[in-house]
What does this fold into?
Amino acid sequence: MAIQERVYDIDDLWEIVCQPENADKHFELINGELFEMAPPGEEHGYLAGEIFHLFRLFDPQRELGIPTVETGYYPLNDRSTVLSPDVAFRRTNRTVMPLNKRWVPTMPNLAVEIVSPSNTMPQIRRKAALYLQHGAQLVWIVIPDRKGAEVCRLDASGKIQSESINADGSLSGEQVLPGFELKLSNLFK
It folds into this structure.
């Protein structure tokens, strides 16, 4: 739900989130439009935690990159969009130490969005498109009600392609996390 009709940028958003009255609120910025997000439910939090944990187990020394949870990412050339995927993975070549205190000025290589009751699939697919259009290589949309997922990526011509993965399928890290595989049957026990 959009909360005001005004064009915001990342500096405006930072000022808003730093206000004491917004300490327990979560916002995203899409094309200058500010959105307040509902807190995730237990299932959502569990799934995000599991995926993050599996990323850490796969690359415990963080040689490939770093996973994050609910971290703000924005395209360096677009100060009107800040997205916070439920879970993300950013390759080492996109990571600068020390880590940012504020948001990350690049999109993650892999963004994971978990569908909540407060989301619609068109909303989530819109975010997936934004991640991909601004540099992400892979987006997983985890759909708890179906115990499945959609995998989104750009094809050679720059068009978004999505592939449905059912409950007995797996999510692959592809070129972002080579060798990583997440069996959905293990995620949705």
In short: The chain has four helices and ten strands.
